[in-house]
Write a structure and sequence with these properties.
By secondary structure, this protein is of the alpha+beta class. The chain has 3 helices and 2 strands, in the order αββαα. The protein has a two-stranded antiparallel sheet.
Length: 127
């Protein structure tokens, strides 16, 4: 065994740990965003409020999180996803909520999420 082999093995292990920790951090970030945005979502029958979705996947050199609300299971929507419309405009018939509910939640929790990601990243490096 050469020293290069040990360094390569160590580097690969660190790289896997960083990716795993990034996925974990982003999963936690999604929970925070959902928790914060849920009370802000416009509500009439509650379909939108319950429709938060999060997907985490790897691309070359990065881990990506996509998140948001997507409503297609409301029988009144006829299969049309109206989450975007609810985000950008606020019809008067809603019982509660606000426009830009997702943007607001992300802005409110930005510092908390960045600190979470930073902490997990730094703990990966201390292996």
């Amino acid at each position: 065994m050469r020293i290069d082999d040990n360094i390569t093995e160590w580097f690969n292990r660190i790289q896997r740990e960083i990716v795993d920790d990034a996925k974990s951090s982003l999963t936690d970030a999604g929970v925070i965003i959902e928790y914060t945005s849920r009370p802000l979502t416009p509500i009439d029958q509650g379909y939108l409020e319950k429709s938060f979705q999060q997907t985490i996947f790897e691309e070359p050199q990065k881990v990506v999180m996509e998140f948001g609300y997507s409503v297609v299971d409301n029988p009144d929507s006829l299969g049309y996803d109206y989450a975007y419309i609810q985000h950008e405009s606020f019809p008067n018939k809603r019982l509660r909520g606000q426009m830009y509910y997702l943007d607001s939640a992300v802005s409110m929790e930005e510092g908390h999420i960045l600190q979470l990601i930073e902490t997990d990243y730094l703990s990966s490096l201390s292996l």
